[in-house]
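Give me the 3D structure for Auxin efflux carrier component.
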Amino acid sequence: MIGWEDVYKVVVAVVPLYFALLLGYGSLKWWNIFTKEQCEAINKLVCYFTLPLFIFEFTAHIDPFKMNFSFIAADTISKFIIMVVLALWAKCTPKCTFCWSIISFSLCNLTNAVVVGVPMVKPMYGALGVDLVVQSSVLQATIWLPLLLFVMEFWRTGIEGTTTTTVKPRSKTMINKNEGGGGKDVEAVDVKEELMLEESVTSRLPFCKVMKLVWRKLATNPNSYGCVIGISWAFISNRWNLEMPSMLEGSIQIMSKAGTGTAMFSMGIFMALQEKLIACGPSMTLIGLVLKFIAGPAATAIGAIAVGLRGDVLRVVIIQAAVPQSITSFIFAKEYGLHPEVLSTAVIFGMIVSLPVLVAYYAILEFVH
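Predicted structure for Auxin efflux carrier component (369 residues):
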């Protein structure tokens, strides 16, 4: 049973994150230390250096041979359930565009498992809970975050590859010359052409060309390599009992340890650039919280039950799905200009309400037992 001492441990783990966020917010809002151009540079530092090394450092030290494959199957099924629901939503309403589908998927499925999930689940379910949360983080880092990066790059490449040709209307004359008695009518302009409005003709790049551009850009993005190289090293090192050279590991750690802090700092700067603290508005904030704390865990529960998970494993799987929003998803959204205000609000308010929500889930699941 979780007690006040365990709650305090969770608070101790979360407060430093808000300290980094507050420094980022104050550096721009109160102290005017950075310009907008410098803020963009800070975000690129996070996206291209500290975050890839953080992902590599995390994935390189897991043991992929001891993963719970039933849990992996449940997690995969839950993601596909969300995809199907979003596809149906997009088909039934014009409000669901491709970019909103990406954001909704992030809100439902991507969690801040390492920073928040581990300290919250450990006092509830001990080593079992920590082990499953770590596995979910590995899956997210090696499969779902690269997939998110891919679809974001695909979205941006498709937008940038769209060309628009503008057709301008003909000018009106309706002119009649009868000067000197020997005049003659000038060419009459067709009424439909006179009233023709300016219109666009939109042409898109071929799908194959878009895909080629996407893979080319992903090949130059370090985030594409962090998780792949990390999990590759995990397989190799655990198979043949190898250790990473201390000089190399030290070089990686010196930057990777700054990953979470600089990500929160960047989010604080982004908040300071917004006119309102709740950048996306109260209605979108509520929708984001519902997707994060209800839709995501519900889909995960369906997937877990479908593969036969029971007992504490089932409970941990559901609770880890309700862990607050991934900071990495915000960093990617900020880099690609894809509604970062929604994800920043989800991260902030998700972390505020996550403690009572997760404790409530824990109590309900124990009662159901």
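Residues 113-160 form the longest helix (48 residues). Let me know if you want a second pass.
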